[in-house]
Structure formats: C-alpha cells, structure tokens
Design a protein that fits this description.
Elements: E1 2-4, E2 37-41, H1 51-65, E3 68-71, H2 78-90, E4 96-100, H3 106-110, H4 117-123, E5 153-160, H5 161-167, H6 178-190, E6 194-196, H7 205-213, H8 233-248, H9 261-269, E7 273-279, H10 282-289, H11 302-305, E8 308-311, E9 323-327, E10 330-334, H12 336-340, H13 345-355, H14 358-365, E11 377-379, H15 385-394, E12 399-401, H16 420-424, H17 430-446
Parallel strand pairs: 2-3, 2-4, 6-7, 9-12
Antiparallel strand pairs: 1-11, 4-10, 5-7, 5-8, 5-9
Helix pairs in contact: 5-6, 7-8, 8-17
InterPro entries: Bact_solute-bd_prot1, SBP
Signal peptide: 1-19
Protein name: Extracellular solute-binding protein
Amino acid sequence: MKKKVVSILLVTAMVGTMAAGCGSKKGSEEGKDEELSLSVTTTFAGEDGNAGNYKDAVAAFEKESGIKINDSSAVSDETFKARIETDFQAGSEPDVLFFFNGADANSFIEEGKVVSIDEIRKEYPDYASNMNDDLIAPSLVDDVKYAVPVNGYWEGLFCNTEVLDAAGVEVPGADYTWADFEADCEKIKAAGYTPIAAALGEIPHYWWEYSIFNHTSLDTHLEVPESADKGNGPGWVEGMEDIKGLYDKGYFPENTLSAKDDETFALFTSGKAAFLIDGSWKVGGIASACQSDPDDASTLDTAKLDKYTVTYVPTNGERKATDLIGGLSMGYYITQKAWDDETKRDAAVKFVEYMTTDDMVAKFAQHTASALKEAPEVDSADFNSLQIKAIDMMAGVTSLTGAVQDVFNGQCRVSTFDGMPQIVTGEVSAKDAVQQGLEAYAEETAE
C-alpha cells in the first residue's frame, strides 16, 4: 500500500523530482573535485532516527562526487548550540551546516557568515527549486531565507499501551482534554505506574511549550509578551501553574527534579510510565529501545514496538488537541567562508542539492513534514508500526505551530527552564519566574 509522505498540514502535497546536482548552473571541471573536502556539521547523530540515513547518504555522495566529507555531526542540545556559536566566533565554522533557523541562528546571520538562498540562486538558479518557497522559514534577523529544509518535526503524546491497558485507560483521541488527562493520570497512578515520563529538572521543554500553547492561540502563540500581566503573559503563568498542578498530584516520576532525560525515557520504554511528550525524532529512539542491538534495525522486536503509539496532546484552552507544535525549524546553510572559497563553492552547492532531492527528503521526512512542492509516494511496507501510527495520527492534525521557545531562547529561559524545580515546588511563584524571563528577553532584544 502506498502513502504520501506527510506534509506540513497534511493537506498540502509537495512536489518536484530533481536529480542530484541538477540545480547547478555550472558543473565542476573534470576531476576538479576529486581532491576536495568539505567540513559538514549536522544534528543527524545519536538517537536521531535519520542518523543512519545521513551516514548512508554521505557515503553515497562521496562515492559519486569524489568529494570527501569531514563530518562533525552531534546530538542537538544546548551544548551543541553553544559549540556552533563558538565555532562561528572563532572562524572555525563548517562549510555546510544543518542547523536551526530560529533565534539560535541569529548571531551568525547578523554577522553575515551564511549565504542566503536568493544569493546562491544568482549563480545557481535551480538551487532548492524543488521546494515550496512559502514553506521555507525566513530568519528572525532580516526576514531572509538561508536554510534549505529537509525534514520537519511535530511534538506529540507518546503512549505505552501496555501501561494504559493495565490501568484501564484508553488511548487518547482527537478530543482529549486536560480534565480527561488528569483523570487518566489518576487511574495510572492508582494502578502503581508513573503517569508521565519527564525530567522536569533537565528537559521541561515540551511541557513548558504545550502548557503555554493551551493558554494562548494559534495566531498569538509565537508572540512573546511584554510582561506577565500583558498579552500572552497571563497565559504563560497559567501554563506554568498547570505543570505545578501535575507535579503536586504526583503524576511525574519521584525523581523528576533530579533525573536525567534518558532515565525517565527508560521508565517509559521499560513499561513503568504511561505518557511521554516528545518530538517526532523520538519515534526512532523508541524503535531503538525495542531492538536487541540499538544500532541494528534488523534486531527490532516488532511485538514490543507494537505496544507504543503516539497521539494528541491534551488541550486546556482555546487550542484543539489536534493543533500541534511543529514545522520546519532546521535546514542546510552554506557558510560565507565556503562560498568565498572558489575551490569549495560548487562542492558545497552540490552537497546541499544532493541532500535535498525529492527522494532524499522523502527518506528523511518519513512521518514528519517537508517543504517539497510534491512528495513522492513511498511504500508503507518500509515503515515500522510506530511510524505508521505517526502517519495516521498526523492525518488528523488541524494545524502545526512553531515553538515559541525557539524565539525565547538563551538566558531568557533560565527562570522557567532551569527554574522549573523551583516553580513546581512553590519556592518561586510562576508569575515571578515568567516575569524574570520576560525582563531578560526585553533586555536582550533591546541590545
């Protein structure tokens, strides 16, 4: 059976077939690239479901082009983001970078260290021509588009159905409310399980985002309020208080304030916790946890994987449960350093073109989102059961809205991210924590 790769709203089919390198206006002279090498950094590493696809694609590109790729990809976290910023400051940035297109990219865009898509198209008019330009996110700095997207993301509610069954709880549906969720959590807790797998002391991100989204709207969610009393400010405070309410009722792991994310994830995959809010990339992480060899997909225990599903995050306000956080938040940048190097410019373009053909994007996007004008059909037999469930879930999505935390980043988030333990324990009020973060944001943007 054939299924279309899911698009951003699952309503927009996205097209175009493009052979690798066909966008280049000028090809390299015979043999010119054979001794060339490119430094490339991406986030396709660790448990990212596309780490293997990326490794295979790089090997194929090297064989086809004769260009050596010096790869320094790493798992995306705050340390990785800091490393990228430091590399640009030190002049040791890679030639090609797969990175975020939100506020995390502001510094190197402001410094003119990456090349815009329009600038590249002046010399390579077919560059990213298979993409729907309307779906390529512009930078927050100058509203100019720099990064060519591959796969997007969504954030949803993963469920361990074995735990739900044991507690007499049904898999949540499209009309799932906060009251429903709390009632289910109470049943799960009474049955001797942990309702929610989350390390609030390390990764409160997903609960922070959705709890705020529940008290804002599709149109206003990405607006950072002036203060805790204005605009979305009261909604932010209510969101933090909702998380505190879940904590007070004992729905998080006992060690949620000190545990690491991998510890609480292990609770979920070992059948001790029921719910997990995370991103589409976690589909790969769950599958790996169901393999006898995490690095070998052929060792997948399909019966074990069948016990997991993904559904909609409970609503507690204006948003529908089917309104998810998601979009196309990352893409391939070509740095100014590579562009100015006549021996590397063509090679960098070729690499990005190779990694963003229709077929390659379809392979990477799978059950997520893409900016292709049209996605090629893929065989559902190529997907595991959780991927198929994700595709089915996404078929019911009514909207995807970007994450406001991608705008509200850096020191602004300390009071509510790092400070989440103090908020849920009542040491600091939600309003004071939100206000502190908003004041830091105002100071940072004023600079």
